[in-house]
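User: Hi! I have a protein structure encoded as tokens and I'd like to know what sequence might fold into it. I'm fairly new to this, so please keep things simple.
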């Protein structure tokens, strides 16, 4: 990046700050150690979470780019910051589920850990005031959250991302239980944005089913920092810094 300068903050979320830069169509994302759960009802700090999420997202965005998924990622600046394309985030959370866990298990009365017969895609309206309610495609189109064409692109990309990440995590002895994605518009294209990290993925050890993700924070299981670092170490083992 050529003399990139961080300018005004344009957005602050639960886990990240986003800044304008002196380059058009380019933002800087800075990852925080703040942790929240249950729509902000539980708050805390996970030491070096920002570092883990920044580095892990970079690894996975690069992998996805190599395999045909366009992302907002442009490059790492330092341990906590990355340069990204300035996308307009669509107000949808896309949840991809392979194994029953969390709210799905509770909502449908399923035993946590049961493998689903097919991948489930869920949509949530990204709205903190409403608690990010579950919606369907008709809702999304009817209230203007996305067009039918955009939703079709999101679905196709989400399923391809799931295939790629399941195989990749399995190579690291990790089971991809479920995960959340966010997409944005960039030059009229729908591309992957946000992050992919232990904040947004449920990852279980393939041999022991030990939880190595944000559920350790949600459920007061302890060893939160260690779990996040374990995931990052598995993903970066053998890579050059």
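Assistant: Happy to help. Inverse folding works backwards from shape to sequence: for each of the 241 positions I chose a residue that suits the local structure. Here it is:
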């Amino acid at each position: 990046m050529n003399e990139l300068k961080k300018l005004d903050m344009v957005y602050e979320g639960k886990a990240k700050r986003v800044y304008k830069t002196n380059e058009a169509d380019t933002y800087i994302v800075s990852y925080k150690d703040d942790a929240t759960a249950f729509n902000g009802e539980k708050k805390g700090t996970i030491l070096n979470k920002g570092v883990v999420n920044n580095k892990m997202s970079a690894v996975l965005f690069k992998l996805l780019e190599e395999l045909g998924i366009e992302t907002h990622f442009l490059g790492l600046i330092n341990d906590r910051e990355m340069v990204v394309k300035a996308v307009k985030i669509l107000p949808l959370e896309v949840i991809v589920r392979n194994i029953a866990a969390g709210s799905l298990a509770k909502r449908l009365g399923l035993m946590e850990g049961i493998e689903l017969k097919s991948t489930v895609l869920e949509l949530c309206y990204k709205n903190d005031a409403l608690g990010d309610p579950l919606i369907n495609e008709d809702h999304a189109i009817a209230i203007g959250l996305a067009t039918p064409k955009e939703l079709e692109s999101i679905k196709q990309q989400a399923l391809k991302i799931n295939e790629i990440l399941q195989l990749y995590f399995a190579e690291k002895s990790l089971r991809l239980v479920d995960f959340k994605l966010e997409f944005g518009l960039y030059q009229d294209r729908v591309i992957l944005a946000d992050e992919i990290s232990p904040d947004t993925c449920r990852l279980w050890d393939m041999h022991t089913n030990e939880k190595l993700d944000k559920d350790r924070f949600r459920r007061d299981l302890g060893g939160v920092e260690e779990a996040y670092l374990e995931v990052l170490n598995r993903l970066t083992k053998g890579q050059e810094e």
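A useful reference point when you look it over: The chain has two domains: 6-87, 89-224+231-236. Feel free to ask if any position seems puzzling.
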